[in-house]
Every structure is written in structure tokens, then in C-alpha cells.
Amino acid sequence: MTVLEQPGAYAPAPPPSWRPRTDAAPLLPDAEPYRVLGTRGTRTAQDGAPGPDAGLLRRLYAAVVHGRRFNEQATALTRQGRLAVYPSSRGQEACQVAAALALGERDWLFPSYRDTLAAVARGLDPVEVLSLLRGDWHHGYDSPGTRVAPLCTPLATQLPHAVGLAHAARLKGDEVAALALVGDGGTSEGDFHEALNFAAVWQTPAVFLVQNNGFAISVPLAKQTAAPSLAHKAVGYGIPGRLVDGNDAVAVHEVLCEALDRARAGGGPTLVEAVTYRLEAHTNADDATRYRTDQEVEVWREHDPVTLLERELRDRGLLDEATVREAEEAAERQAAELRERMHQDPPLDPAELFAHVYAQPTRQLRDQADQLRAELEAEQRSAAAAQSAGSTTAGEETR
Ligand SMILES: Cc1ncc(C[n+]2csc(CCOP(=O)(O)OP(=O)(O)O)c2C)c(N)n1
Ligand SMILES: [Mg+2]
């Protein structure tokens, strides 16, 4: 007999006023990730779906082909010393592109550091988007103008920002939704909890897309959570959780469009988990062979987001060699333009290093700023002296 089974033992019972507030069943995610690409033959007759719209398929395809090339180019720029660091989203292009294309013109995107491609697919200037990764103090683009928040490096802090913006928009009667992107590791942050709880209680028009790419740097998902899936976490907040194949651009696009429509219409937030895989290392500074095997990566290469789209387009007779070439050539042109622009040094004022640290600079910072100014002026004077000595010598030689 256990202590709790003894007569008169404490038997916890809910107080009389307690009742479940929400029926959990409709909030639960599907057991398997939702898929569209490659499922036509396996769908039941009652689905009767004609398959994804041809125009959408072509737009997604062009964007993922561009995205793949963009990732390669940005990684190459780190080797050429033009980018300080780059977290590649190779393998995750479907999530990035679908997120950007699902947004309405007035909606907001709240990306993390890995979501450069989502910002580019949203139509931002790639050079501006890469500003932070280039080492600039400013994130490079006009956030209110583009409705894309800065690429956020502190994990999950973009989530409460998204909820705050969505809540404010709702108070103002604006039909605007905010889509916030976060990684699997980011779901363990306090900010994730605070954002989802606030959003659920206030029914803010925010949608959370977790790109579960299997790892938080070297930490695999199994060490990150014991939850059945990350989408299940939604139930604890009283909001719907959706599980989707993150390499299936059409499925991600469809699920996000539904969630954003619902949010804008006052139906509250949704948590979407997109199951995907980061094919490259965490960043160019990471060695992924230390924590995962080539065989594991190979399995995911077989489920590549670009190939999945390409196969669907071919099966439907929507893709010929000319279209493939066109998409690849367009991607190549964009990569070449990015390369060329990134090889131009941006005008830099070293004094800006000190400009936005404190409203009232400390004495140490003022001293450092003075020292830097003095050193730069001395450098300029000696360069000018060397130049005039050179021109005198040259003048003497020609005399
Ligand atoms: C608050 C905070 N803690 C730690 C870090 C260091 N850090 C940078 S990326 C990362 C892993 C994040 O993994 P995940 O959320 O799965 O995103 P992914 O990099 O896989 O896209 C960590 C721990 C950070 N940037 N911010
Ligand atoms: Mg991750």
C-alpha cells in the first residue's frame, strides 16, 4: 500500500469551480507532418484536390532555386572575408520562401538570424539584409517601411516583439498579422513561453513558425525537449498546434496562409512546427561532423525541398528544361550581382563605433573615441606627407 492509498490520505481533487476552459482535442497537431507534394496518388478520392495551383508552384520553385544559390553565395562571401559569419538555411529553403510568400502586404515578419532568405524572398535588398552579418552596427534596412523586423540573434526575443506589435495592431483595429520565426532550440527560451502565453490569453494575431531543423548548434532535439512534438506545446497555451513537413513548400505555405487568415480575422494565434533539416553546419564557423553522421545528412538530402518541388512540377507537366535553365540563370544573375555589390567596401566612419552605445557616453568611451580620432588623423597626415614626398621625387626625376 502506498502512502496515498492509506485511509484518510490526502487525495487532491480540483476545487468546485475548476473546469477545463478549452477542449484540448481540436488543438492537437496531426500525428504525422502535413504534406502536399508527392501525395496526389495517395490521397483519397474525397480529397479530390486538383493539386496545388500551378502559378503558386512556379513562384515557389523560382524562389527556392534562387534561395539555394543565395545560400551558396553568402557562404562563399564568408570565405572571401566579405561576411563575418553566415548561418546557412540550405535544406530549409521551403520554410523560408513559404513564410515570405504567405504574408499579406501589410503583415509583419519577425525573423531570426537564420532567416535571411525569408527577408530576401519578401523583397528586401539582399545587401541590406546582410548588413549585420557583414559586421555593421545597424541591421541595414527600413523595418517600418518593409514590415520586416531586424534579423534577431538573441534567441526567441523576436517572439514577444511580434506579439506586442500584433496586439497593438489589434487594439488600433488594423487587420495585420505578425509571423515570427524561431528555431527548435529557441522553444526552450523563457521568451517563447511568455510570447505564446500572452498571445493566447489576448488572442493576438500572431503566428509562430518553429523551424525544427533537428539541432541547436550541436544539441539534438532529443536533448531539447521531451514533448511529443514541438507543435504539442500549443495545447498548453490553449492555441492550435500544426505539424507540417518543412521541406514541402506547398504544405508550409498552405498551413501558414490558413493560420494568418485566422489570425487577421480575430481567431487568435497558431503554433506551427515545420519539420526540416539544416544540411550545412550551424554557421561557417561550425564543424557539424563532430555531432552528426554523414549517413544522417544523406537521408535528408533525399528529401530535399528543391527536388520535391521540381518533381511535382515535372509530374504535372509544368516544368521543361527551358524553365529549369531560366530559373537557374536568374538565380546565377542575382548571385553575381550580390557578389559584385558585396565586394565594394561600404563607406565607413569608424567613429560610429561609439555613437550608439550610450545616450551619455562614459569617460572611458570618450577617451577611446579621442584616441581613435588622434590615430586616424596621424595616419592621414603621414599618408599625405608620403604622397607629397613621392610627388616631389617624381617631379625631380622628370626634370
Ligand atoms: C539568448 C541566447 N542564448 C544563446 C545564444 C547562442 N546561440 C546562438 S544560435 C544557438 C542555437 C539555436 O538553435 P535553434 O533555435 O534550433 O536555431 P537554429 O540555429 O537551428 O536555426 C544558440 C544556443 C543566443 N544567440 N541567444
Ligand atoms: Mg535548430
TrEMBL record:
**Dehydrogenase E1 component domain mapped to chain residues:** 65-348
Protein name per its UniProtKB record: Pyruvate dehydrogenase (Acetyl-transferring) E1 component subunit alpha
Q: Give the PANTHER family listed for this entry.
A: 2-OXOISOVALERATE DEHYDROGENASE SUBUNIT ALPHA, MITOCHONDRIAL
Kindly list the cofactors needed.
thiamine diphosphate
- The reply to whether Oxidoreductase figures as a keyword in the UniProt entry is yes
This protein's encoding gene = pdhA
- Compositionally skewed regions (Low complexity) per UniProt: 381-399
Q: Quote the SUPFAM superfamilies the UniProt record gives.
A: Thiamin diphosphate-binding fold (THDP-binding)
The segments labelled Disordered in the record are 1-25, 374-399
Name the keywords, alphabetized. Answer: Oxidoreductase, Pyruvate, Thiamine pyrophosphate
CDD domains cross-referenced by the UniProt entry: TPP_E1_PDC_ADC_BCADC (cd02000)
Gene3D superfamilies attached to this UniProt entry: 3.40.50.970
The protein's superkingdom reads Bacteria
Key word Membrane present: no
